[in-house]
Amino acid sequence: MGLNIKQASVIYPTADGRPPVEALRKIDLDIVNDDFVVALGASGCGKSTLLSLIAGFLSPSSGEILLDGSKVQGPGADRAVVFQKHALMPWLNVLDNVAFGLKLQGIGEAKRYEIARGFIKLLGLSDFETSRVYQLSGGMQQRVGIARALTCDPKVLLMDEPLGALDALTREKAQELILNIWHTTNKSVFFITHSVEEALFMGTKLVVMSPRPGRIAHRFDLPFSRQFLSGAPAREVKASREFIELREEVLKIIFSDEEAAA
Amino acid sequence: MTEHSYPNTQMRKKGILFFLMKARATKPGETYGVPGQGDTLWLSLASIVGIIFVWWLVTAMGWVKPLFLPSPQAVLAKFIQVWNEGFTNTPFIEHVGISAARVFGAFLLACAVGIPLGIAMGMSPFIRGVFDPPLEFYRPIPPLAYLPLMIIWFGIGETSKVLLIFLSVLAPVALGARSGVKSAAIEQIHAAYSFGASRWQVMAQVILPSALPEILTAMRIGIGFGWTTLVAAEMVAATKGLGYMVLTASQFLQTSTVIMGIIVIAIIAYAFDMLMRFVERRIVPWKGRM
Questions:
Q1: Do B185 and A101 touch (CB under 8 A)?
Q2: Predicted ipTM of the assembly
Q3: Burial per residue of A239-253, b for 16 or more beta-carbon CB atoms within 10 angstroms, e otherwise
Q4: Mutation target vs A (from B194, B212, B287; most A CBs, 10 A cutoff)
Q5: Who among A57, A88, A103 is closest to B190 (CB)?
Q6: Do A57 and B193 touch (CB under 8 A)?
Q7: Which residue among B187, B195, B206 sits closest to A105, beta carbon to beta carbon?
Q8: In chain A, pLDDT over 70 holds for what percent of residues?
Q9: Preferred mutation among A48, A59, A89 to probe B, highest tally of B CBs within 10 A
Q10: Best label site of A17, A227, B201, B275, fewest CB within 10 Å?
Q11: Are strands A70-71 and A81-82 parallel, antiparallel or unpaired?
């Protein structure tokens, strides 16, 4: 049960006789229960393609993606996506943005505002219900995006570099917020990032991806988010010897992949 | 380091040209380096006053004959006279009313047809393929060139007049709506689909609202074309209207009436544009901010 990716490959055909591009090769990945799976890798390693597969925006050239045993055929609210930016509706205020997904599902106004308000409170946005989203800071806009994705009670929450556009300080706070919300809601999460530190801190499982063809090169099980959730301060976790050693190991892998590919 | 080391820098720091071209530090509250920043209200008022002054000067000094350019007072007096007595036995307000009815009627019609057509062209390659050639074919043709056709086909009545204005508004409105369809970010569209939206919902709740700013801009451009075409539309067999008034007056060398008519058309068009800008600020306040 949960989300199972089995031998999924994606091959983009190219024009004018060049060989087709193999964006993903035989990906096997399970995202089940309260897994927090982080995909890490350099640009072009197929992280976003993998997320598009899970979201249902793209169908695999071979292999399959199963959600609770049935094949993923297209996008759906059981796999809500949080984007890096540009995904909110500027003509709606915060409340209507958060309730947007519920509205699309035909849920009546009173009911959807009630649900939306719950998540607005969870994300600490209660004072901004009637604010215009373009007046909010980047960090608050991302919180709106996360609240919106949570309203539909997805089985898997897909996050496509959700913190990539934030400044360093906001980013660290947002990491803690997302971990707390993950802990409260008990969702499976698939999370894409460029930042090794973010990947190590947040994930329970880490997949390091390599480019050309995009594939999972290494897998790690991570203890750090659990340490944070059981009370250890975030900076302390990130400064621990274990964390730093693993960080260097992962960095070494990524850099050697880059050199091998270059 | 002496000035010998950097002769160019020292050279460049002199002269009035350097002073004018130099970017100065901004005052608090402004952003350094934004092109075209600053309020222009007073300059615009000064510009208007300046033009009227030069106009008054060249007529008052007798440099230009009233036949070619009557004085501002004469034009104002003509306005008051026409306002009180009408023009060719028709009250002034009726001339204004009939022209406004033609332009706004054609404009509303063009919006009712052009906006859905443009959106459909943006959404469907089939509709785009079908309607792109005719639209692009007639768009650059001056309305005066196809006015004879309108008259041959639709007679000299109201139909050909409104149709001529309608056609001049239709193309910019349709093209604006068509490109507005591309305003929605792919993330917004994907977000809606990932919540299980249907294609119809995505169109109604993501693509249409995103296209609104561009549609409103296209409407502003379109009504401008409408006023431009008014005089051409009232060239044939009109007995009322501002365009008719200007054309008739020109045949009798009543230059003051011609200028007065031009100014009245300009003022109505400008007032409507201000209204549209107000509407824009009210219904698309996010324009350019996200």
A1: no
A2: 0.89
A3: eeeebeebbeebeeb
A4: B194
A5: A57
A6: yes
A7: B195
A8: 99
A9: A89
A10: A17
A11: unpaired
**Residue A171, token pair as written in the block:** 């980013």
A85/B187 Cβ within 8 A: yes
Q: A82: which 2 tokens?
A: 């949080």
Q: What is the pLDDT of residues B136-164, one digit of tens each?
A: 999 999 998 999 999 999 988 899 999 99
For residue A80, the distance in angstroms to the closest alpha carbon of chain B comes to 6
* DSSP notation for B178-201: HHHGGGS-HHHHHHHHHTT--HHH
pLDDT digits (tens, 9 = 90+) for A1-22: 789 999 999 998 887 778 888 8
Q: Is A104 in the B-facing interface, judged by CB distances under 8 Å?
A: yes
How far is residue B96's CA from residue B265's CA, in Å, rounded to a whole number? 9
Give A85's pLDDT tier (boundaries 50, 70, 90).
confident
Return the H-helix or E-strand segment holding A173.
helix A168-185
Sign, CA torsion A30/A32/A35/A36: positive
Q: How far is CA B100 from CA A19, B215, B252, in A?
A: 62, 22, 24
Whole-model pTM?
Answer: 0.82
8-state DSSP, A159: E
| DSSP assignment string, chain B | --TTT-HHHHHHT-SHHHHHHSPPPPPTTS-TT-TT-S--HHHHHHHHHHHHHHHHHHHHTTSS-TTTS--HHHHHHHHHHHHHH-BTTB-HHHHHHHHHHHHHHHHHHHHHHHHHHHHHHHH-HHHHHHHHHHHHHHTTS-HHHHHHHHHHHH-SSHHHHHHHHHHHHHHHHHHHHHHHGGGS-HHHHHHHHHTT--HHHHIIIIIHHHHHHHHHHHHHHHHHHHHHHHHHHTSSS-SSSHHHHHHHHHHTT-HHHHHHHHHHHHHHHHHHHHHHHHHHHHH-TTTT--
> What residues of chain B lie within 8 A of the CB of A83, using their CB?
187, 190-191
Q: Kindly report, residue by residue over A17-69, the tens digit of the pLDDT.
A: 788 888 899 999 999 888 999 999 887 788 889 999 999 999 999 999 999 98
